[in-house]
């Protein structure tokens, strides 16, 4: 069965609520652990049905935000999911109050109980209207981003479609299209400011009404930071400032010399090479064929996985009018199916997003043995280890995608992963500032962004672009609007992925693959630091944790002859 044959039916939630309550009562009144587990398994089936239908609606709406039916269904789920959270709260409370709790902990992995405890901390029926308002605001942001229709040289592009021109070897074209990109945000500045201002206020009200000091505390619980704290993150941010910012400065200085520019402007940063960035060879269909061969050659496990994705048409990759921006992977439980969403635009990012989201999808495919919906995914920072590492694990096959430009691709891929880290921790630091100071005005928030930007990304020169100079670049970062505090996860995972890169491509340590398979299989049955340990990686929260891999990256980059990069 192909994805377009997956049947969507809006469920009768009155019936579901009744079934939920009957099984909650069974858990509460169970006379044995077996009876309690039977109630849990019945509710898991209900969760899977709800998640299947809500995911189908959201996927199809994201593919075409102009589809009136799925717009209506998306609105329906935005209203109902917070209400369903109340049922789940009762379910989780019944488990934690069960006289068979110790026996249940022998049957279900420990993170499940940590996660449901967090769920009880971050939900109360009184905040349902606030959760519904939050969902509406996030949908408004997504629709605003998807509404971009930018005219350039007689054609109309969305934000993703404009990206190739922003990497042009013609500096005037880079500048012109970068300004068009920024102008969309400038023209809609009042709406972006308003949406985010309302989101901050809604989230702060939720947090304080639930007894949290601020939304930072609530956000950490929401994100299930199971085994690290705010202070651990601060250590990591310092490591990035001390180790990664200097390496990033080296990369950009070398880039400026390669481009024969005295100084890189913001519109130059996306062009790594004077003859142009490496681009994948072939149509979107041909890239899928190459990916199919790559995963067939990589291992029996990846071959089985990718054949499944192709057979069931579980990828939507082309950019088109009305399609949401960005890329994601999600899970459709009742079909045991991952789904990959992307916006191909003819750049190397097409290969990056394919391998990245395939890393997520491979983990989901490997974790299908897990019964608990809460554990099919790991927590977010662990999820990103699978995806970011897969980008580097795919390196030996990149000549098929890039031909004689493969060394340019590898240099750019690695160096861009390095320069991403300061930006990633900047996004996280900014959100701490925002939610610790919720009364800031929109102007003060933008000013704070620009202040932090100068600290973490000192190479940003905006050439008098008013919108960026006043601190508006973060408008384009959807995570800030729709997934607060989901960004440090990428950076934590990136330094773990660097260690997989070092083991596989520098140390030639073949054991990396069995470690990677192991962490994909465990899903969310282990916490972040447990997964790091299982993978035989160093924790990013230790002092000087980045020094070895940073040196390995610099040595690799310095060894690349500039002749290969022209």
TrEMBL record:
The keyword rRNA-binding does not apply. It holds the Pfam family Peptidase_M3. Keywords: Hydrolase, Metal-binding, Metalloprotease, Protease, Zinc. Residues 165-546 form the Peptidase M3A/M3B catalytic domain. Its cofactor is Zn(2+). The keyword Manganese does not apply. Binds 1 zinc ion. Belongs to the peptidase M3 family. This is M3 family oligoendopeptidase. It comes from Ruoffia tabacinasalis.
